[in-house]
What we know:
Blueprint: E1 16-20, E2 23-29, E3 33-34, E4 40-48, E5 51-52, H1 69-80, E6 87-88, E7 91-92, E8 94-98, E9 114-119, H2 123-128, H3 131-151
Antiparallel strand pairs: 1-2, 2-4, 3-4, 4-5, 4-9, 6-7, 8-9
Helix pairs in contact: 1-3
Amino acid sequence: MPDRLPPPGPSFLREHEIRIGERRLLAGMSRPTTTDDGWWLAILWVADDDGVVVFRDLAPAAGPPADPPLARLGPAIAGALSGLIREEDGRLAVRLTPVVAPEDATRPWRCPLAVRAAFKWEAVRQASLPPAQLAELVLTAFRGSVEGLHRR
């Protein structure tokens, strides 16, 4: 795997700025799609001028925690989108997976910070929000959750 991947493409929305110390990063999102079974899908990423950063770049200064980054990112995004995500069988309908899996499963913080995100929305909420506004809420939640990776 190369050190850096290029962003998956142009961001569907205006990229959101993330500041980590003096670093300026940008969070972007692909154009969302919806599957036949109702999953809303998009790719979310964080990049700088050299391409998609790795999760390790946003780990706390003391080093990456023992748990994988998606174990922190998932609940943070779900919390930020509380009330929008459908609940199925007692669980929120959220799925996050890395676009590129880490080469070493014991070092999950060493893979590109690009994730496939899938959500099922509460029907009334989805019907009341224009698609671009829903996408903006997802990108905002992602940005805040990524910033939280560094603070924990």
